[in-house]
Write a sequence for this structure.
């Protein structure tokens, strides 16, 4: 029975082939799924952090709007690539990066997804302890939660989409809507005219680091290959989910911090329970569990697709292995003071950089080419080991992003701007240049051969 379930999930999930149009979901399902992927309790807590950092409400609003515009500029084509091709992030990378280049892209997807999985388990453990004051070490509590969070992925995309559509997203939307509407009247218009101790440059750098780092997935194609291939069916759900998850949630946290003076995560969690649910901790606990389980469902699903590109295993083995690895990651990250900053920054650099390169290849260099093999699946043995222009461009973008992120102590002088955006621009410029040179050289070689052939007596 277990073997049948595993093979059934693999077969229905189109791990290494295109998702048929008849199995695509509508914008409501995709929108609700995406709400659970860019909305979470950390998006509320960061509003408390921004108030503590003395960022004004005007700066917060400007920062989140600019960050969301950046996300839309990246996200609409990235999600459309998934819906247009019907292929996963890892499979799309094969033709662009080559056999070993694709494996590198998939490896990055797996370890980053596992890191997020462990991080979210740790966040949920801390949040539940803040509500119930359990006398349990956060580390071991996070490990136990990480093991429990993998169940939905036994059922492939359907299990994730149904959980998001019927339970997780409605609960989240009701929670944020009620809390926002309750706290908004308490915020006077004078907050928009208060003195701002920090520059807008500092505010934008601080805010975008969270919003972009938390909301960009990089492997959007893994999920949106189940969407119908129309740009507006991507744009509308993306916009709606960002308004809820990265504008309303942080602004709600900021306004609650201004109202109460509370800025620490533990008391803020208890405040959200008291303010939104009247002290009924069971409701707050359900909301927290739902939101973190939903986002970890999606993260683990992406990691599964990455693993399948490296080696074909039964789904139950992959899910179990990743759940155990995620539990180990939770244990390790619980003892890392800047775990969120590191994971969010590297995630927003490494995974989207590969997507930028794939977008340029499929929508720029192959534009107008509607041949049936444009999005066909190529076996590794039919591919070159690496595509140098793609791999070098990926390394270039990663190096620029990491160097300007502030993560490396010795490179603090290079810390400026929005590191993820700078990374995307760098790898995009590098790929446009290197790929153009590569194609020009191939054309010259082809012309030379044709010229030699035409001059031959046999020609």
């Amino acid at each position: 029975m277990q073997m049948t379930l595993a093979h059934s999930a693999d077969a229905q999930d189109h791990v290494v082939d295109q998702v048929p149009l008849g199995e695509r979901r509508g914008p409501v399902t995709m929108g609700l799924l995406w709400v659970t992927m860019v909305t979470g309790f950390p998006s509320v807590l960061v509003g408390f952090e921004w108030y503590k950092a003395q960022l004004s409400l005007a700066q917060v609003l400007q920062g989140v709007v600019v960050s969301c515009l950046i996300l839309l500029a990246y996200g609409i084509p990235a999600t459309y690539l998934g819906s247009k091709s019907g292929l996963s992030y890892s499979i799309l990378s094969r033709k662009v990066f080559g056999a070993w280049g694709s494996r590198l892209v998939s490896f990055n997807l797996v370890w980053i997804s596992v890191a997020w999985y462990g991080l979210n388990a740790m966040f949920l453990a801390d949040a539940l302890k803040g509500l119930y004051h359990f006398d349990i070490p956060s580390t071991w509590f996070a490990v136990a939660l990480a093991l429990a969070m993998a169940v939905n992925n036994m059922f492939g995309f359907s299990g994730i989409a149904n959980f998001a559509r019927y339970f997780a997203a409605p609960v989240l939307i009701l929670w944020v809507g009620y809390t926002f509407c309750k706290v908004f009247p308490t915020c006077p218009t004078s907050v928009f005219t208060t003195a701002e101790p920090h520059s807008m440059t500092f505010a934008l750098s601080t805010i975008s680091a969270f919003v972009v780092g938390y909301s960009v997935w990089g492997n959007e194609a893994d999920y949106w290959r189940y969407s119908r291939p129309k740009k507006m069916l991507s744009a509308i759900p993306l916009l709606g989910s960002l308004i809820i998850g990265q504008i309303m949630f942080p602004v709600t946290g900021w306004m609650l911090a201004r109202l109460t003076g509370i800025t620490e995560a533990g008391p803020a969690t208890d405040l959200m329970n008291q303010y939104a649910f009247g002290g009924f901790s069971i409701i707050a606990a359900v909301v927290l569990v739902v939101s973190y389980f939903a986002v970890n469902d999606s993260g683990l699903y992406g990691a599964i697709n990455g693993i399948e590109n490296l080696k074909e295993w039964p789904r139950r083995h992959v899910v179990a292995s990743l759940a155990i690895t995620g539990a180990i990651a939770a244990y390790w990250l619980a003892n890392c003071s800047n775990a969120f900053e590191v994971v969010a920054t590297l995630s927003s650099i490494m995974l989207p950089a590969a997507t930028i390169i794939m977008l340029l290849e499929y929508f720029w260099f192959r534009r107008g080419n509607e041949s049936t093999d444009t999005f066909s699946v190529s076996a590794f043995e039919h591919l070159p080991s690496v595509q140098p222009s793609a791999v070098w461009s990926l390394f270039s973008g990663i190096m620029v992003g990491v160097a300007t992120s502030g993560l490396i102590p010795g490179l603090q002088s290079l810390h400026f701007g929005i590191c993820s955006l700078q990374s995307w621009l760098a790898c995009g410029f590098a790929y446009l240049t290197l790929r153009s040179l590569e194609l020009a050289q191939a054309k010259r070689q082809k012309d030379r051969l044709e010229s030699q052939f035409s001059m031959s007596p046999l020609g």
About this structure: Confidence is low (pLDDT under 50) at residues 1-11.
